[in-house]
Amino acid sequence: MSNKLIELACIIDDDDIYINLIKRVIETKKLCENLIVFKNGKQSIDYFQALLENLDRDKIPDIILIDLNMPIMDGWEFIEQFTKIKNKFNKLITLYIVSSSINPADIDRAKSLNSIEGYLVKPIVINKLERIFNKSA
Amino acid sequence: MVQIIKPPKPIDNVIGYLELKNNSILCSKVFLSDIGYPAKNKEFSLEFFLSKLIHKDDSKLFKNNYFNFTKNNIDFRQSMLIKSKKGKYKEFVCTTNHDNINFNNKVAKSKFLFFNKRKYKTNKKVKKSQFFYKETAEMTSTGSWYVDLIKRKSYWDQQTRRILEYPEDYKPSVNKSVLYYPKESRELAKKLFLRCSIHGESFNTEIKMLTQNNRELWVKAKGKPVFNDKKQIVGIRGVFQNIDETKAKELSLQRTSNIIASQNKRLFNFAHIVSHNLRSHTSNLSLVVELINSTESKDEKLELIKSIEDITSSLNETIEHLNEVVTIQTSTNKSKSQVKFSESLKHVKTSIGQIILKNNATINSDFSKVDTIKYIPAYLESILLNLVTNSIKYKHPERDPIISIQSYMENSRVVLEITDNGIGIDLDKFGGKLFGMYKTFHYNKDAVGIGLFITKNQIEALNGEINVFSEVEKFTTFKITF
Fold this sequence. Notes:
The structure holds 2 protein chains of 2 kinds. Chain A is built from 5 helices and 5 strands; from the N terminus they run E-H-E-H-E-H-E-H-E-H.
């Protein structure tokens, strides 16, 4: 087990059940100190932008797990918007896609994006999640 | 036994004719000598005439004309080849006695056919090649034509007349050329002719023509400019071929292929939906199982088992939605019947009366242009219900919803349009996903993202189309083409 814990992780997903389960995993495995959850890309972008305006740059998460299929603003659009502002935070932010899509088109698209650290296909394996959080810490 | 009515001399000597009596044909001397038979062979049977004298290419048409003339008094004019005793074909123009030829001041009681030798004799070589040309033209249903741009005259061969169902003596006219095309292909015909006559561009196209009997006909038309010595364009020469049967097959094949393509697209879509929507539930289930295995605490295990309940109930819901979609695909041959738009709307209004009342919504409808449609009644209701409730659901916060519904014809298809004054949809952003499953674009809590998906499926399953027009904050219009 690692010695340093991630301070703030972020999950963007519209599936309530998934969020509850992943919360539980993170809690029981103590993968991070704090967790913040958004139901779609728009909510989170709005939040991040507010952080920038209020100069609360420290409150930006270290790791973001984002779903692809979401209402209002989907994962792809979030990534596009987020890439525009992420350099304004003085922090290394790791982005993972976590999606139930096994569509090769989605996987290839994710690979082509530099801002994406990896593509995790649901169901998430707990061990793998642990490794990712430890690596990012 | 056979009586020959003898017309007065000058006629008998100048004109070849046949007198038609019962089943026999009596010939004039001149006609007999024209074809090299002795004057005493005055009587022929129709069968002899058809099988031995007339060229086989002309005999079918002649037979038709002959019976129409004898039975229905329909006059005709036909040019034909007739075999002489020596076995050579001579060209005659055959006309009927519609002017009631007067013999000795007595109106003839019998019917007569007059045979005039063709005035312009073509030399033998030309005749021979003409025979092959005729054969080719007939077997391939190809007619040829010429438009003289200087004299502003147009010329057709017999095959052209036959294809376009004009009589043998019909003279085509440049000024009336619009008659030969149905409305939809006039523009194309005009364009091709102008380009050819002005720029010398030859053409090769498939176009619909119109016969004299107003029958539409697909032809393959080719044309090229004709130049004089000074290289000026003086005319257009061309051929056209009757391809109506082939074209009909091609069009029906195209239709079938379109249907298959759309079915395939729907199936593909469906497979994608199934895999994606079911996967999200199964992956949740896997995660739960993994969590149960990784924890030691009994209470926690029990709690996790409880969450399986949530997963299964949403899995059920998804499967119900999918089932609904499958039902649409398989019930396209459900019985259609004449449905009144107003009736359907009435049912919809009754079933969501509370919602309409609560939101103070106004629904205006105008079905005066088209009031009924042959459709699956349940589908029409479901489509109206989905679109009307959508309009109310996404009403503008600052005004009461007003929904206008109207029907009309467009390109001989029935169109239903539903317009609201709601918040609108940003089509640049969401246009592509609007009709997807589980796509919602608003923060409304009751947005499920299944309505428009089902609506689109219902419409497309019956070969219709749905399109959307919208301006954010102003309006949304759904246009359904049945």
